[in-house]
Fold these 2 entries.
Entry 1:
Amino acid sequence: MDWVVTVMLALGLVFFTGAAVGILRFPDFYSRLHPAGKMDTLGSFLMLAALALQELSHFTLDNVLVAVKIMLIVVFYFIASPTATHAIVDAGLRAGQGAWHKPPGERP
Amino acid sequence: MKLISLALVVLLGGLFMAATADFPDWGDPASPASVHVSPRYIEKTMEETSVPNIVTAVLADYRGYDTMFETAVVFTAGVACFLLLRRRDPRPGPERIYRHQATGVIVEMRHKPAKEPAGEVFARIDDDWVPHDLIIMNVCRLLIPFIQLFGLYVIAHGHHSPGGGFQGGVILGASIILLALSWDLRTAMGRLSEAATGLMSAVGVFIYAGVGAMCLAMGSNFLDYEALGPLMFVDPVHARSLGIFFVELGVGLAVMATMVLIYKNLASEGRLDQGL
């Protein structure tokens, strides 16, 4: 069990690191929201699920309750986070923020 | 003038820095606060109030008088925002704007119609910023009941875990503000009207002060919840716990209503007719 928890935590960290790098490195508003929206969601899912598993490794009623609460956080995060990203993109479009294009003549 | 203010700032800042040097170290067990008051609370809270969360007990019971006026400050802030921002003069521009739901055609009306058109054919919209996004609207509609349930849980569970009236009230108020953000101000006003917010923020403070006055009427000190025991048919220790719960309800009500009141006035330039 400990191994599963450790691997999930590490994977979550990898996703969070990817999200941070993506936010810094991507060229414009919309593409920056891409790592922020997707990788944060997956990273927090992995980390919170790992915490819930860790709670379940000592199987008592209290621990199960805590694990269920953690998984509830995951459920609401999964609903709210993509919606928030969607709302930000929507607001950007309405406010007239243009999308980034590769400058002409630049090598891919 | 600037030189004088600079000199004053430097002088007072220097005094402040010099004074902080005399403070006890952070977490110093020999500091005055840790010697007299804190051990008393830590040792006696459970047997005197049966509330496991000492912070809640100190906030709403031992220092309940303080917290009552904090609630009054919240109420006063709401009233001040209302008095400063609320206005009655009509907005310039068209009186009403509608979107024809099936085609997306926008209709402007110079005068207020005698009868509001049916909502499923023509929907009223704002004149400047009209978010109309199915995903956001429906996800928020789905989430708001859970947010409000969590707000009630935070208010009621303040005895056992971090939380209480202020925090829970803010969560409840935020849920109404989320409704106003994701739909529009009129929808939120339909759920919680201006009169309701004003009344609720006053009633919240009234509940708090009323619980205190009730203790006075039962022949005890102001906000000494022990006196309420005979009214609620519980022993004095549980009466303290229940008294804390009642004042937390009042705080929650006042904070929620005041937040919504301030938001409505800020979002609509005080006209409360449209806005996010």
Entry 2:
Amino acid sequence: MTETKKESSAKAILLPTLVLFLIAGVAALLLGFVNDMTKPVIARRETEETAAAMRAVLAAADSFSEARHAADGTLYYVAYGADGNVCGYVFTTHGNGYGGDITVMTGIDASGAVTGIEFLSIDETPGMGMKAQNEPFRSQFLGKTGRLTASKTAASDTEIQAITGATITSNAVTKAVNDALACFAQIDGEG
Amino acid sequence: MKFYFALLLMGLLTQNFILSKFLGICPFLGVSKKLNTAVGMSAAVIFVMVIATAVTYPINLLLETNDLAYLQTIVFILVIAALVQFIEMIMKKYIKSLYNALGIYLPLITTNCAVLGVVLLNVDNGYNFPQSLVNSFAAGLGFGLAMVMFAGVRGRIENNDIPKFLQGLPITLIAAALVSLSFLGFTGIVEGMGLI
Amino acid sequence: MAEKKSPGKEFSKGIIKQNPVLRLMLGTCATLAVTTSLVNGFGMGLSVTVVLVCSNIVISLLRKVIPNKVRIPAYILVIASFVTLVQMVVKAYVPALDKSLGIFLPLIVVNCIILGRAEAFAGKNSVLASALDGLGMGVGFTAACCAMGIIRELIGGGTFMTGLQSLLSVFGEHVLGGFDGVDFFAKFPILEKISLQPMTLFLLPSGGFFTFGILIAITNRIAEGKGEKKAELRDCMHCPMAAACGMQPESCEEAKEETA
């Protein structure tokens, strides 16, 4: 540093502290303000996304209500048809993909068959694992019941044809759907 | 226990910070010329990553309980920057030998995206305290593995006859591409061993 | 700076001559990580440009107020605030971009371009010059990200500009006639008939390193033709820790002489 006169040590400590404190204060105020503005937008968007995904996986449903699993407290949704009877359930389950967590929303009708799956979060390799979001992989799950496995050939009814080059992703999605089916079996068994 | 082992394997091989997550590329390209600097840098990174995780974890709890999660980025980077300075001062004063070995790398780490990256990833993945610590340690180890391996690779490049337009950085990056490609071979190892 | 540059030059130097990514090797992590598609690369570039221009302006405004001793923490504070701001806005209005950038959005904080420009330029120059410098560097960064994105998306996935609508969704539905990119393999089935397949490798991390290496080789070749130096890893002059670093003392001094 090239200060010609030597500053007193108190000033040398206080001034930088004060300046930093002021900048931090202004920054905090500004951020708090913007957060107040964007927070409701983010929250609204998230509920809209969830609602849209629920409608997509269980088109037959008219309304949904939240419920919690008695045993482990997992959140799921009970779907009611236009006549007011329970017409299915929607579960949100996870699988461990190549790029991290894959969150899948699965709709299951009252008979225990999958009515649709929707990806809430997926971060796989583009062109490989990301193909899970597209057909024909996705529609394979429609109407499936019981315990599923991902395989190369998909010979039997409970097998899902894995995506070429993305076995981990295929397994992760299948696992998530299996978890949803297992949840359904438990709830169905109780009720 | 199984999960901790899985975290270690992921950090080292399948989710390697440098080779598959692209975090910490600057030191990877800049400091990997010689083996001893690569080792020193990696040791400093492991050290700071683990300590930063230990410090930011309770702070994050505090932020989240007060509904201030949006301040994560700004708080974490300031805490890390202050922490690194603080460690440097303490080392310089009390642990001279360690300072001589790691000291010059510490300032470089403040603005290293690997450190902030691991802290943010821990939060994103919802790891608890011991899991976060192990994950940070594993990420640091993975960083070190890539650095040390690449220092070896670069040693070989130096002695080769390389087309003029590829000399220097381009060939280094292409070599990095090949090392990264070889790590693809580990894909599925964690799932295959039934650890997750 | 010894010579006074015209405003136009402050702006244009960052785009080609001192391109932060391809010539100065700054901000490489983000460039490599998110450029799996043109839209992602552009989104990242735009976010960085916004942060860079804003932080350059504020730091330049405060340059006489901030004591030299605490300038780095002060810069980090200003930059982190703007990054958080951008993060919140993106999350609220362009959620698809937030999802695809992931943790690299908050990591803009440690993007060396921004702290580097604050230290090397905005802390010493007028507001207008700093803003133009930030804009130029940001455009240069965006251009490099877009170039990486186009190459990797085209060769790796056989697509061009996919996900465009999710980026434009902030302006409403069906902007630009709902154009959402081209999938060449879906459009021209003949490609598959002649056993052509996209080289997925380019979308993987490995392909990122490779594309980046080739791009730098090309820019080096062009720079050489103009009698300029090759891009090297001597970012010391932009590294805020140059004084403490001591890693490459010779190149540091060389760099300092250049700026002087």
